[in-house]
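dude i think i finally got it to work??
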Amino acid sequence: MGRKASMLATLVGVAVIAGGCGTTPADGGDDGKPMVVHLYGSDANMSNSLKDKLKDSPVILSGMVGTAPLLDLPESFKERLRGVDSSLADYGYAAEAYDAVLLAGLAAESARSTDATAISKYMVGASNSGTVCDSAAACLVLAKAGKDFAYRGVSMRRSGFTDAGEPSSASYGALHFSRSNTINDNLTEYIGAGDPGSASTAASPPYTAYPTGNAKKRIPPLKVGGLMPHTGRLAFRSAPRFAGARLAVAELNAAGGVIEQPVEWVDGDDGTDEKVAAATVDRFIGLGVQVIIGASSSSVTKAMIPKIAAANRMLISPSSTSDELSTIADNGLFFRTAPPDTLQARALADVVMRDGPHQVTIVAREDAYGLGLQKNVKADLLTAGMTDADVDLISYPTTTEDFSGIAARVRQNSPNGVLILGYDETALIVQALAARRVGTAESLGG
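look at this
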């Protein structure tokens, strides 16, 4: 069976293998010999932007492979994104940010209101119920006519939201780092995951007539705020998300706006930090922003949900994937276009087990994203036949800068595979591992 066919045959079909086999100290000690491992990554560190933090470490990521929610994006969509930001190095979560804004605008048109609580009631139905449409222009025509429609845009082309307001299915990509510390697009593979049958069957509320006279004049324009990082540890991954969101605003306006008014974009920064994000949310509330796109990290999103719910604002994250967010109390005002981590965890475990029994070390940052995904991957590995002794869990505070102790522990334990669940600090982790002569065959020159 060919490589691609083999991947398609897996449970969820997402590969994260990094190749290589080599000399490993039999006693797990540090004898200076190369220790070749499979090196795995996940969505937050699988980015071309990571190379900018590794200018003094050429080829260090070579052979590392990881998963990310990703689609085989149409070239026309990429061109439109580059029209917004010509400097884009990749397109991670751009489609999810685009769909988040479009769905909010379409739901507002369906609600005949820009009030966040009213908009939220039409979000799930706009993704599932009625005539399929795939653009701002086509869907707005249906919404204005009071007809049920199912938006099938860029990231949500397979199916719509679940009752919890998150994707019922998604597309994952297996991304391979090359010797230039960048993703080799020629090796990227796209495989569907999840269950379209889990999409909600709930219908939207009944459509009402548009307000007239003074009531119509009193409807404020839809304001969309960008709560994504211009600063902080996820800033290196944010450019595609901002581009996707801004493109959606432009296309809604090109189609006539929402309730005959232009949608307004209000830029903001979540700083990959709860305090920075909270200050931005306060500013958005003061400016009358009804729909907030973000945050980027699961931990910041989790912290903002009570705040936006209390203020009757709507929050849609294009990139927060923690399973914890599926059941958090949100007054029906939180949605996400990024798939939950249960899908990625199953994929990671499936690929590890396909390689045969090993010992695996999972290194994770101590936040909702890292610890949640680490827990789920281990659970799936144990279900697949590994034992507790086969899976070593290491976590680190999000402020950690020195990873030499973690690298020493990895070297001592002699795993066959190392999975890193981190942000831009992944650069420091792989450098610390390399200092201990731990890496993929490609990065070690094997």
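Confidence is low (pLDDT under 50) at residues 1-28.
im so relieved honestly
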